[in-house]
Write a structure and sequence with these properties.
single chain, alpha+beta, Lipocalin, 3 domains, eight-stranded antiparallel sheet, 11 helices, disordered N terminus
Length: 500
């Protein structure tokens, strides 16, 4: 009897095994955890305490029947689990360049991802898989309860629905809108690139026609973002600042080709005498010869005006001159003269306390949240806070053939903004404040500017001939990989590895 009781204890303490059959997600071995005594069921601890004092160490007769039922239940549960739906075998498209394949080897199913850096996949149940490197769940479900199962990628409070490939790895949905394809693909890309938030706005024929916000403010703050969630727009603020500087040029207060130091009472960088040659045109076209950012003492990396040297320092130099001419700090100047007239009410070159409740936080390449920071000192080159909807309003101004009088600049200046500089630099070059992509010769295909701060990547672009455009912002160091794939879906075959 003692041996039987030990066998019983070893059986009843087997942890429950899920039965993955839709609503029947409960465990048959639960019966072994209870004992019927004195007309009621009691748990295993109470049962063992009572049985410890019996003559034989106690295995009630009714428990023998229960143990037999338990053993039968365990085998039945195991059989159900092993009977995985054979129709799951095959290839599933999660995004245009991501395939999840399920193959069978004997009684087991194996999953494999293509296109992801870490393809490890673990099966959690008959219809659920887990991607440990991405903390992402892949769950299969039939649409409307019929047809082939579809994989659902679940991460950052978003769900992306993939589809069976039907034998073709190019079977991404056709005959549906770009927006519908984005809704399917972007959540999968967010999981793939550890990007908790993506926000974008699309422009067609000089009108904002669609915007959507995906994900959460941070991996550690699962609050859904919305159209008012503020991102760091990073270097995209340079393009916005360029327009305000050209308004001064149009008013005759700033000369594009006059040395900037001549507008100041003291040299901007006396430790670098070459800076005395730098002009506003050089700053906006990034030919100042200055480094992007100084580390210690300012040192030139090229003679002014000789070659392309992308430089936040050059924009900061021009900012000093603009502030001197206008007698106001740059954040107030931009707010009063450009942001508010454009309706960019969530944008600022300086942190505002109201941002705290609805701000996207940056993340490193592994999806770990970076410590939140606040730009309390405005810098035209890097500290712009904005949203895609706000920044899209600036793109509309750039494409407006008849802008409001208060915001208008001459056609000559507008053309200069969108004209390649004289220095040759291949397909990607700079106008005044904007990067330009030309397909052949001097014809400009589209105009754009990218942004990259720690934990944030973004891009704004527009097509002057068609009036189309897009603004996309992400809160991940991997955001460029994500937004290039999104742009390719919106504007096919127009995404070179471009940018400063």
């Amino acid at each position: 009897m003692r041996e039987m009781n030990q066998l019983y204890q070893s059986i009843v303490m087997i942890p429950p095994r899920p039965v993955p059959l839709g609503l029947m997600r409960w465990s048959l071995p639960w019966w072994g955890w209870c004992t019927f005594e004195s007309g009621r069921w009691v748990g295993p601890a109470a049962s063992r305490q009572r049985n410890a004092g019996t003559k034989h160490g106690g295995l009630p007769g009714v428990s023998c029947i229960r143990a037999m039922m338990l053993v039968m239940g365990v085998f039945w549960a195991g059989a159900v689990t092993a009977a995985e739906p054979p129709e799951l075998e095959g290839d599933y498209l999660l995004a245009p360049d991501t395939v999840f394949s399920i193959t069978r080897a004997g009684p087991r199913l194996y999953g494999c991802l293509t296109g992801w850096a870490t393809p490890e996949v673990m099966q959690a149940s008959a219809s659920t898989w887990y991607l440990p490197a991405y903390d992402t769940t892949l769950r299969f479900r039939r649409e409307a309860g019929k047809g082939a199962p579809h994989p659902l990628v679940e991460r950052y409070r978003e769900t992306a629905m993939g589809r069976p490939t039907g034998g073709s790895h190019c079977a991404w949905p056709t005959g549906v809108s770009v927006e519908a394809r984005l809704l399917r693909a972007i959540p999968a890309y967010m999981a793939r690139y550890h990007c908790p938030a993506v926000s974008l706005a699309i422009i067609r024929q000089r009108a904002i026609v669609w915007h959507h916000e995906f994900g959460v403010q941070a991996a550690t703050r699962p609050v859904r973002i919305d159209e008012n969630t503020v991102f760091e727009a990073c270097s995209m603020g340079k393009a916005l600042f360029a327009y305000r500087a050209l308004m001064l040029v149009d008013a005759g207060r700033l000369d594009l080709d006059r040395p900037l130091n001549e507008y100041l009472t003291a040299p901007w960088a006396p430790e670098a005498p070459e800076t005395a040659q730098i002009t506003a045109r050089m700053a906006l076209q990034h030919t100042t010869g200055l480094p992007n950012w100084r580390s210690g003492r300012l040192r030139m990396v090229a003679p002014p005006g000789r070659r392309h040297t992308y430089s936040g320092e050059g924009i900061t130099f021009l900012q000093r001159v603009v502030e001197t001419l206008c007698g106001r700090p740059i954040d107030e100047l931009m707010r009063d003269d450009l942001l508010q007239p454009l309706g960019m009410r969530r944008s600022s070159y300086r942190w505002r306390e109201e941002y705290g409740a609805n701000q996207a936080l940056g993340h490193d390449p592994l999806g770990r949240c970076r410590a939140g920071r606040r730009f309390l000192r405005a810098n035209a080159a890097s500290t712009l806070y904005s949203t895609p909807l706000d920044f899209a309003r600036y793109l509309l101004l750039m494409m407006d053939p008849r802008p409001p009088a208060a915001l208008a600049i001459s056609h000559q200046l507008r053309n200069e903004m969108l004209s390649p500089r004289a220095l040759p630099s291949g397909q990607v070059t700079f106008g005044l404040g904007w990067e330009l992509y030309r397909e052949s010769g001097e014809r400009i295909c589209y105009v754009f500017h990218v942004g990259a701060n720690k934990g944030f990547r973004c891009q704004a672009r527009f097509y002057p001939e068609t009036g189309d455009g897009l603004v996309i912002m992400t809160n991940s160091d991997n955001g460029r990989d994500l937004y290039e794939r999104v742009i390719e879906m919106v504007f096919p075959s127009s995404i070179p590895r471009a940018g400063h």
